[in-house]
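Can't paste images in this forum, so I'm doing it all in text. The chain is below; anyone willing to post the predicted structure tokens underneath?
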Amino acid sequence: MIECMEDVLTAPALAPPVGMASGPLGAVQAAAREIARQTAVQARAVAAFAATRPASADRAQGEPGAMSPERWARRAGMLRPVSEWAAQELAVALSISTEAAESLLERSLTLVHRLPLVLDALEDGAIHPGHLWCLLEHVAPIADDALRASLERDLLAWMAGRVATPAQVGDKVRREVLKRDARSAADRLARAIRQRGVSARPDRVEGMSVVTALLTAPEAAALVAALDAYADALPADPGDARSRGEKMADCLLDLVLRPGESDLPPVQVALSVVAPLGALLGGDQPCEVEGLVVPAEMVRALLAALTGHPFAAASDTAASDTAASDTAASDTAATSTATTSTATTSTATTSTDTATTSTGSGGGGRGAAVDGSPASDEVLLGVTAAEAARYEAEAGELAAWWAEVERRVLAGEFDAEPPPQFVDEDGPPDLPTRPGPAPPLGPAGPADGWWARADRAVELAGDAVLTARQELSRARRLVTTAARADAADEAAWANSPAGRVTTAPDALTALTAATDHARAALTGLLAATGGGGLADRPRLVLTDALTGALLTLTDLPGLRRAAAQGGGLGPPGPTDGYRPGAALDRHVRTRDRRCRFPGCRRRVPRGGDLDHAVPWPTGPTTAANLVGYCTGHHRGKHQASGWRHTLAPDGALTVTTPTGLTAATTPPPC
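Text version of the structure:
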């Protein structure tokens, strides 16, 4: 069934995720919702103001005094129809910088024209201004209007009734964009990787500076984890009053500036990598590295560097092997996701630099048209649909003006004497002239009179309209050619192994669609043991096909044992003592991954903070009675008065505040 655009644009029923408290906290909530409403009101007003300041009033590109081509090229597409002076006017009105005014203009126009449902939710108080950044950065740029509207609606439905912080919404947005617009996201990532670098800026405190390293997510996670491990490995000294942050900074300086003088011991860094089976087979499914959502190609490059297995890129086109598929399928029939905890040294991590610059995602839709006519990148990208629409509008304006002039001429509205507005010693100064014989004498008199000049202007206007129509026709052909090429590219990618793996509904279908090379690499990874680049044996995560809830962690030997014994696969059994056994500990940490307190995104520490919902020994040490917290929220659960934490058997956690507000979280994916 084809989904109509009206259905796509229907906003889900949204309301603030929690009720109103009483007293001062209720006043805080009311103020926050009013701030959200006023933010939406401001966005609509700014967009309305921008509509009164069209760019057509500015000097056109190429005219003396116009905006420089460099600035014009950097100008956001959403601001192209707006006068460049609108930002300055807004800056004066609000006492802000011009840069801040342009940012406000762009954000407001984007919300009004590209994210209307988000703007409605903001106005209703269902979301707050902090939620906007991830939607503006990741959803608004999607070019496909139907895809963008559908994703906008689904994200708002996901947020309905849920206490979700901006960071949590950002994770969900990145995951959904990677699912639905993976190739465009991969292109953006490839461009971003080329921006990697290190910079420094002065801090707000005199004498201090902030060093920023723009790295890929796995590189950044490995760097911070390594510095953290170096800080832990420093000899204990009762007189050392440095904080952990100070120790990490000193270790960084020692390693970089004094590598030959440092006596720091070597450390090993553990990164938790969660990758769907399809991603390891060459698909575009989103993955996780230390809880951060990353593209599949980045994880394939990281695992290839650590294990030596050359994982397939999305562009692999080797034919699939039925025998290999049957063998691999028998081992992984019930799996949907693979997870591995990897250990990297600094050398292994930096090897992902060049590997991740290849997006392996099929690229954009460029090439020849289906009718065989050539279309270069420059031609296909030369005219957009928006520019074609502008050509058509301008041609319509010229045609209307020309028709009005002709009507007035034929109606005899021009008198024998020049009209008052044309009275000038030299005649109208700006009427263009053209070569050729002089027109015949008319009722206005000589060929060089005002009538002849007006007649020449009408003819020149006709020529301009004809030229505009020709350019419009050419623009339409180019847009059609680009659309055909993009459709052909999409079809080719969908029929490739990467496309079939990405759209596979289950693991068996993905294995069948994968190439021999991808299946061999996956088999090698699953057969690997701890050692080398891997700190632990890779394990398979079995999830519920409908809810995505974790069922169990297992590996190939575990699958074979379960098949031989005829038993089902489920969470590890209970542990007799207070501390969970290794298998149960691993299961709960994989299920929760981040602190389960509503709004918190801190990682569950590796060494502790798995809490018994019903205190031990009254409550058992089982998966249904354990939940992961960060250290601060673990302390708060036991020490903050008036709070209630209730854990359901499926892992859903409900937290009730002292004022009676409730919020629930479920284990990821959610």
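The longest strand covers residues 269-276. Residues 380-494 form one domain.
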